[in-house]
Amino acid sequence: MAKDTKDTKESDAPKVESLASETPAKPAAAQQSFQLNDENVEASYANFCRVSSTPEELILDLGLNPQPYGQGETKITVSSRIILNHFTAKRLLSALSMAVQRHEQTFGVLETDVRKRVQTT
Prior knowledge:
alpha+beta
């Protein structure tokens, strides 16, 4: 009988739970899906990119440099201008970085200095 009294006293005591169990769990982020329509897309090649920005936007001017190995003044016509907010620009940076890393792991390091590429080949 003493055992029953002890069990009753323990069950009557208020339960103390940790703060972690009282904190509501964060809802899982909803997965967003996209359907891309690229029927009217215009593809163009660029070997030149100029980046500029304002406090609100990042601006990419893309064009074709007809003389990438040349010296002196070269006239480059901007064929596309892409304007992004900085959040989208950061996501683009991450995606491009991952793509270049995969490419370099497969094919070797990319030399971005044109003069060095010409000397080594």
